[in-house]
Amino acid sequence: MKPLTLKATRKEDTIERRDRNTLLWRSLVLMWFAVCSIYSFLWTLFKAAGGALLGGLIVALVGSYLSPRLQYLLLHSLAQILLSTTQFLYVVQRTFLTNASTDIIDKVSDMAAPSVPTEILSSPTIFDVAQLMNGASIIPALTTPTAGLSTPSFLHKLHTVWQGVDISQIESNPPLVILEDTLTDCWRFQGRRGHVAISFADTDLLQSVSLNFPDQRLVTADRLRQAPRELFFWALASLEQVNTSYKHLLKPWQEFVTVEDLVDRSRFNSSVEFFRVASFAYDPLNGLQHFPLHHPVPTSTIVLEIMDNWGDESTCLHGVQVYGRSV
Fold first, then answer.
1. Cα gap 78→71, rounded to integer Å
2. In the chain, what percentage of residues exceed pLDDT 90?
């Protein structure tokens, strides 16, 4: 019996050693793969960080030689791309992962193509003369300074490139955005009172003005408080055009000047003043609102003056549409 017992014991020892060796080799292989994976991850992370740092340095150095206007256009384009991508992903998520896809699509459609009064659509000669594509432009000399704009330092530029977008100035859009067909951007100025001057491509007989604002369910309470509340609409007119009974509605153009050196003396002289052709109240909860002008006059320059907002320390103005016909 002893030889059989000894033989069985040796066989069990052999199997046990084989199992230990197999387990050891498997452990070593797993450790090797783990070490390789960690090394590969750290190396990839290092290369990404190095590439981002190098790219940031290059972009920041190149940006330091660009004019402030080109720097703004670059940052604005990046922010627009980021915002558009985020909105697209949001719509895709709501469409395929929730049951509210129809509601979201309706909202986007309403925002992209706001309704226009029927009397305007029925007249082929009346159009939005304040559209950027129709030749309208901002007059900086008679426009309140934009809030939040500053000259960034080198480190600030580098941090901006590293983040991909300048969060501190994400809403520092120029007043030009109010002439674009979009509700995603707004022009913001400090305080509850300010004004923006708009020049048209031609002299037009103005009939109405419309203001727009995003859906209240898609903006914060702070943004709602930044919406304009009381507004005056001024048209640059020759003193000979204004009836003597309306002289109390005139205002010298000098009172709107913010940058004296930029004033165009061929347009702004002693023979013209601003004539208040409308005053109205705006409610941001109602989105697009249409206001007829009390005294339509032919003009190529207007000023939209915000007299008050809904309670914030800064004011945010979205799309402005001015309807008229060429004369």
1. 11
2. 45
Give the SS3 label for residue 193. Answer: coil
* Buried/exposed 120-137: b ≥16 CB within 10 Å, e otherwise: beeeeebbbbbbeeeebe
What span, in angstroms and rounded, lies between the C-alpha atoms of 222 and 244?
43
Q: Which two tokens stand for residue 96?
A: 């395929």
CA 97 remoteness from chain centre: 27
> Could you tell me whether strands 289-292 and 127-128 are parallel, antiparallel, or unpaired per DSSP bridges?
unpaired
CB-count exposure of residue 237 (10 Å: 0-12, 13-18, 19+): buried
Q: What are phi and psi of 66, to 5 degrees?
A: -85, 155
With beta carbons less than 8 A apart as the criterion, state whether 279 and 233 touch. yes
* Alpha helices (runs of H) in 113-172, residue ranges in sequence order: 118-121, 154-163
Task: Determine the distance from the C-alpha atom of residue 305 to the mean position of all C-alpha atoms in its chain, rounded to a whole number.
Answer: 21
Count of domains for the chain = 1
Task: Say if residue 312's pLDDT is above 80.
Answer: yes
Report yes or no on 10 lying in a domain: no
For the chain, the first-to-last Cα distance in angstroms comes to 123
Residue type, 290: H
206: nearest Cα among 290, 135, 140, 127: 127
Q: Could you tell me if residue 200 is inside a domain?
A: yes
Q: Is residue 228 included in any domain, yes or no? A: yes
Q: Decide if 318 is inside a domain.
A: yes
CB atoms within 10 A of CB 273: 20
**pLDDT tens digits for 122-142?**
555 889 999 999 999 999 999
Number of neighbouring beta carbons within 10 Å of residue 193: 14
Q: What CATH number has the domain bearing residue 306?
A: 2.60.120.260
Per-residue pLDDT reduced to its tens digit, 231-261: 999 999 999 989 889 999 999 999 999 999 9
Backbone angles phi, psi at 76, to 5 degrees: -65, -40
Instruction: Note down the domain range covering 206.
Output: 117-153+172-326
Distance CA 222, CA 288 (A): 19
